[in-house]
Amino acid sequence: PSPCEWCRCEPSNEVHCIVADCAVPECVNPVYEPEQCCPVCKNGPNCFAGTTIIPAGIEVKVDECNICHCHNGDWWKPAQCSKRECQGKPAA
């Protein structure tokens, strides 16, 4: 069987197998490790701010004017961003 299957032999010589049900990963870039069934988030929970991957729970300055953050690894939701003053000019 694969790492996702668990099988047992019954006294009747039948084999019964179940397949793992993996939780949804809390990141946009999960990876599969050898001999592990479910994907893991090596860099922790994260989400997309445009095309940039940012960690969950902290504010990240993605460019001169925008600060973004994602909540609790809700990777399926894009980051929430807000414009800040940039280069001494008020946000537009």
Automatic annotation (TrEMBL):
Pfam families: VWC2L_2nd, VWC2L_C
UniProt record, GO biological process: negative regulation of BMP signaling pathway
Gene Ontology cellular-component terms listed: AMPA glutamate receptor complex; extracellular space; synapse
Domain of life: Eukaryota
Domain VWC2L C-terminal: 46-85
Name this polypeptide is given: VWC2L C-terminal domain-containing protein
Native source species: Phrynocephalus forsythii
